[in-house]
Amino acid sequence: MAQLFPRSANTIAKASIVVGVVFMATVGGIAHSLDRGPYTTNQSIVRDQPVPFSHEHHVKGLGIDCRYCHTSVEESHFAGIPPTKTCMTCHSQVWTNAEVLRPVRESWRTNAPLQWNRVHDLADFVYFNHGAHINKGVGCSTCHGPVDRMPLMWQHGALTMAWCLECHREPENFVRPREQVYNMDYRVDRDSGRKNPDGTAPTQAQLGEQLVKEYNIRKDQLTNCSICHR
Amino acid sequence: MSDRGSSEPVTSPKYLDLKDFVGLKQKVEAAVRQDATVRRPDGKVVYRSLDELAGTAEFRALVDREFPQAASEWDDGVSRRNFMKLMGASLALAGLSTACAPKPEEKIVPYVQQPENIVPGRPLFFASAMPWMGYGKGVVVEQHEGRPTKVEGNRDHPSSRGAADVWGQASILSLYDPDRSQVVTRYGNVATWGQFVNALGDALRYADWQAGKTKGRTAPARVRILTETVTSPTIAAQVAALKRSFPDLVWHAYDAVGRDNVLEGTRLAFGEAAATTAPAAGGGRLEPVYHFDRAKVVVALDCNFLTDEPGSLRYARDYISTRKVSYAGRKDRDGAGLKAPIDVPARQSPASRLYVAESSPTVVGAMADHKLRATPDQIHAFAAALLEAVEHHDHAKAATFAGAPWFNALVEDLTHAEPGTTLVCAGEYAPPAVHVLAHAINAKLGNVATGPDDKKPVSLIPAVVANPVNNVESITKLAADLKADAVDVLLVLGGNPAYTAPAELGFEALLGGIYARKQADPRPFVAHLGMYEDETARACEWHVPETHYLEAWGDVRGHDGTASVVQPLIAPLYPACKSAVEVLAAALEKVPATGSTSRPAYNAGDVSTARSGYDAVRATWQAWQAGNGGGDFEKFWTLSLHDGVIGKVQQPKDNDPFPPAATAHKAVAAPKVKDDAVAAARKVTPAEGLTLNFRPDPNVWDGAWANNAWLQELPKPLTKLTWDNALLISPGAAKDLKLASDDKGNVFKEKFIEALEKTVNITVNGQTLKGVPVWVVPGHPDRTATLHLGYGRRWAGKVGSPNDGQVGFDAYPLRAGATRWSAANAKVEPAGGTYKLAVTQNHQVINHETNHKRELVLSGHSIDEVWYEVATEAGEKRGEFTQDELAARRQAIRNREEKGAALPERPTDNENLKLARKIGLPVLPDDPANSPASLFPDQPDQPAGGHDSNYPAWSMVIDQTACIGCNACVVACQAENNVPVVGKEQVMNEREMQWLRIDTYYVGKPLEGDPDGHSDTVDVADPDHTFFQPMMCVHCEKAPCELVCPVGATVHDKEGLNVMVYNRCVGTRYCSNNCPYKVRRFNFLKYNDDTTPVLKLLRNPEVTVRSRGVMEKCTYCIQRISRGRIEAKKAEAKFRQSPEFAKKSPADQSHDALALYNAELRKVTTACQQSCPTEAIIFGNMADPESDIWKHKREPVGFHYGVLAELNTRPRTTYFARIDNPSHGHAGHAETGAKGGDAGKDSHPGH
What we know:
Chain A is mainly α.
């Protein structure tokens, strides 16, 4: 019986294996990056806002504290978005005719609230609480990134569950002294205000363990489902 | 070991012949039936339904299965093939659309100006009061960023004391009901409020003018106002002001339930003369207020004081406070670690005793120690006989009362008690004559207070009702006037008289007649104010949508007259909505009381000048305050709003932590009961034939709540019926009506289930109601039948009248004014059909057999006595004691109680417990002796001594002695946890979603002629006990559900909670299958309505709204635990930062920080616990020795048990058995028990 396939079939067969593997890897890679990448998580995507509010200008440039606007961050699960009145405390005096601030003045005049586009949006079955985190020494910039260098806001972390668990499994890698929570440029060796017994500045590994103990962070409990989901 | 390798010889098969086979089958069936009957050691049988008693195969299947057959299929006619096609397509699309799509964009909308006190994300709480039957019940309402989400009781309010009932809890759903009326209408066409006000003003003025001008009438316009029961001082003042312009104005009142018999009873007993002693507030009528905490013996004559009275929440709290015999419960009463102290002496007083005579089964009857099931005329005779016996003051002379073998014991209890320590109460459902008799007995026994400071069980106060007219007379007069064309303007402010008015009046037609006549004659002007476009709204010319009580200003008085401001929590959802106060203010504005045509300016002290509800209410109380001490009104007003009580005593003294508020009605000196009234009341007219009882429905009441789906789907107490009403009859009546077959001249319990759901035609007062299904209720009196009001609504809304159809059967056409509560000579004939009812009695049946092998109903009047029974019985069996020693022990207990000895500090100090230890009984439910080794892994930080644990151990105790089965917890849970309703069809498929159910069990004695104790015959007609067992997830420490979940969606957390992770759940339902308690609920369909916009406002934002395909169950209110935990962590963090913390030693530091943490956690309550009127549910951290739950958990076994604990699931929720306190002084009760005998002959505890 004559050969059914030409010799080239061997090459094609071998090549098709390679092509198949590459194809599947590509599909897998695309799927993964779609699922875990900014397309789904919105990480690093700069959001347009009705008023191009610049955290960079207000935080770094003017040195306004986080809590001036996000008033309930220590009290509530919700950090709070400032009412129009907070904007108007300054902008009734400065930049009173600026075109970019027209929506703010409009809101003040008509008593219709501003509608901001939400940047950090957790799934609805997650119950995150700002107050608990602030009180246990998790810094703003740990999750929100260098807000003071964001002209327009973007989402710094992936906000996936794996991302949350990085800290919930090992909080010692992230906690800082409570008085440093609002420090946007926090560096453990420079800003912690603590010293090792030998007088050297502590590393995060050294300080973290100590703070977990000091703040009585119930580490075993942090990975319980019921801590975030109800 | 395989079968193939077996070397056993193979026996040749034996062929069964057919005869053998039939015999075998009968044996198996008999065994199954035997198995189904749960017998207690004393030979009594415990059952939860007639099906269970009958031991039907269906019932067995229900015990074994999680859901009934085919409940897991979606049986609605969609073929499997079509279903697969649809699902295939939607799955594919779902995969495309949800998995890869980016998250939808959301907006954040801040305030323009943030209101004061609002912290975004944190709820606020405001005090208000809910009008119910016209009376107020104090509430505290939770509000999230301006939207009310949950109603709780107000601890400072005398009618609530922190509890909220089913209506209070469900009222939040009514606020957001999408079917509420939203616009003003005239002849059904949209109109505006302005048009209405103008038309009203024109009508008033035109009528006034015409009356003076023409038709020979000299009297001014005939204005009529029709309301339900009203206690509001503002409305009363407004009507009085209106009356100055229209001297002919008549204020009619008609309430389908009302207080006619109560008020008529006091009028007959004390006469109109009472008017001279009472201030004008009561209109000359008196109203009794009861203090159950001051009574040691209570006799209730057709009186559902636990749920149906305006003061019921308070009454239930007070009554149960005299029944709690556990150490922890008693400790609570003494004020240690207590939520709300109760003014009872802090000593080991024996439990009170409750005698009940009732004509329709209620929760009061279920709580009774002795119960008379009787027709209303028999109850009348009973009351007369009781008065006779009490007057003679010699129980030996008292004749035995038929049906109440304990009658002599009752007389003995009453006459031998100290004067002023007993209480006889008659309910609205008893005729006025019975009230007169009750007043006479109370007077005879010295139970009536002689003034405000006299602490007696009964005080008489000037009627709280602002317009105390006889409802039936009042509406009959109005109907006559309407018929005679003698009405110019009629304002129907609230209520639904077209549906509820006495049948013979044809009230709807009268209003409808006006409608038809309208074009020719502009009179009368008829307007209706109501929350729904209901039957009355459709009959009236004008309809104005009414505000919900959470939307408008008003005021209301509680059961003892204490006034509260009804404070709005939200602006009206629909701007057209107005309150009764606002409608009257508009009328006053159009026709000023001064008679001048110009509008007077607002005068802060004069209600008639107020234009808004707020001004009117303020004006009323400014005037009141000016006449009652005066002072800074703003401060007074702010305090009144804050407290939810007007005139609260701000600094109560220690000996009276809850003194009556300044606005409470003061008790009058009890007038003498009139002899001629008593003489007349003694005459009893026997009723002929079958008596049909009309009763307000325990859920939808008079029909006003018919469109509230939470209440429609709530299993009614005792019957467990949902979404319908039915004719409730006794087993005997079922036999008499030939609904159940009756062969061999014997009552076979199997036969009663034949009667269930059979339809009958009811004829009474010449009216016939056809096709009503029958439901047989154990314990229902014979020769009576009960039909609940409030169903068969034609225009209730989408829930109460789906697709313009009806839910249930309308009883009002049968109900005449003269036979409001019971009609004799009713004819009931089988109609030959059946009607499917959604009854949850047999749903989620647990295998309670092993449970009741232990006795769940114990008896004894104190915990010592209960323990005496438990410990000595065990000791006697082991030969530890002689009979003499036992008698001596019992006497010692009695002696100690007589002296009112203080409680021992620790329950374990009790000598009975020491004794128990000695004879080797386990003392605590979690004694190691009680829990054998388990294959299940140990949970971390189990409470075995772990008091220094860094983690709390959440747990619960439910006291069945205190549970009155009122269902408040079920609705509270539904409101708190966003639990959906599923509808009647789904309930019939056993898919109801309530996380908490109340299992009701009956304990029946075997009938005579049951010598072998194996017969199926049980006295279902008269159960010895009825008790309730609230059942929700018990949070097993070794939870069977967790092991079978393939995706780890149900797991334990560090705090001992069995948590449900919705986003992991894939819906295998294995967990539910493996749960012996059957407390898990599965979303077979998407039950939560998340598309109707107004319902979005209703949700608790702290709790996930579950979708289809997800399992759910009680979480111990994990959102509240989380809130508590976060607050505790914040407090701990603050403490750890403080300078004094740094000064402490390291050991003290961690100890004090943990103590602070635990103290914060002690504030956590579950929704069910918070709503419970009797504090039957205790919840907390049992690793904290200072918590209430720690004390409760240390109650000894014997009456403290875990349900199905023999499965070694180590449930975190444990139960206290129901402890009854029957009299030992009579022969009827104790001897029926297997171990009766001696106990029955025992001397009475009072001696």
